[in-house]
Please model this.
Amino acid sequence: MSCERSRFANPVEHEGTGLTGVRVLDLSRVLAAPYATMALGELGAEVVKIERPGTGDETRQWGPPFWGDLAAYFLSTNRNKKSCEADLTTPEGQDLVRTLATQWADIVIENFKPGTLERYHLGLANLRTENPRLITATLRGYPEGDDRPGYDFVMQAATGLMSLTGPVSQEPFKVGIAVADITAGLFLLSGVLAALVNRYQTGQGQHVSLSLFDSQLAWWVNVGTAHLVTGDAPRRWGNAHAQLAPYELFQAVDGHLAVAVGNDRQFTSLCQLLGHPEWSTDPHYTTNPARVRHREELHDLLQREIGCDTVEHWTLAMSRCDVPSGPVRTVPEALAWRDQFTPPMHGQINGIPQMFLPWRFSSLPATPKMAPPRLGQHTEEIWALYEKLRKDS
Model:
């Protein structure tokens, strides 16, 4: 077998091609890790997704809604991949994965329960011993030592996110999307890319590991640091901000308006726009700490004026005087607004609706996009590759 391949020995050889030439063996399922592998494919990598025969990734059945017989949930995280059915409980399936990992792949990503791959004789450390250039990555629910499975809803509860989300006087709320999963997927992506850069420099692969729980904790930024500084437990503020004012929703004539004042200059501009320049010199509101201390009375003053006109009026007026603001849109409204700009953020690939990822590169060529695969769509192709690799070794 060839473990001393020259691909990516010199990064200059691949300048301007993104991840073209990088090969990813995707042993993951559900949302967080598949989101990362989809992103690698979006950047040009070749991704082979190994799926359980007959059922595949659980999210293939997570619906409605469905596009034909494909669940929208599965479609959201599995673009740019080839699907190969393989039963890892059998020697044949295990040998397929081992051969691809040691003779074909640059990166292997998995999110099985701890010990599963070892039970299948596919421990990642052993794979890296056979292929020292291999980068492996593991995503778990909890930190090492806690083997429970992780799901986004539970993570939002267990990491404190729900304690910060929702109206002050009501029960805790989850965020409307699987934010713990997506956060972990993005951390996984960045870790794998860092390991790939390190391989440019050293010629050696390594292992990247993280958990949903830790990824969510790392997302706390100012909230977590505020707790470390004060020792206090952060609390819910509804749509207000713990450290800034005014930074909240206001009711206009025809809907809600988000206003986000981040400095004293913006507050002065807002006061002038609303016809009350004297507010910006009132000792209660002159500085942000003062405004935070008097947030409720300040809210009432601003609401009295903003409530007299429309969301569109205030959005345009505040934009002209550099006060950050915007309407509260629905998802369809936000997509419709974005459609006026290019390139688009959504479209169809082989007739299947897709949301695109946000990168825009000045020189990297666009990579062809593949529609999310049907279960086992590329099984014959991947098993033929396996046979060729075995023969060549």
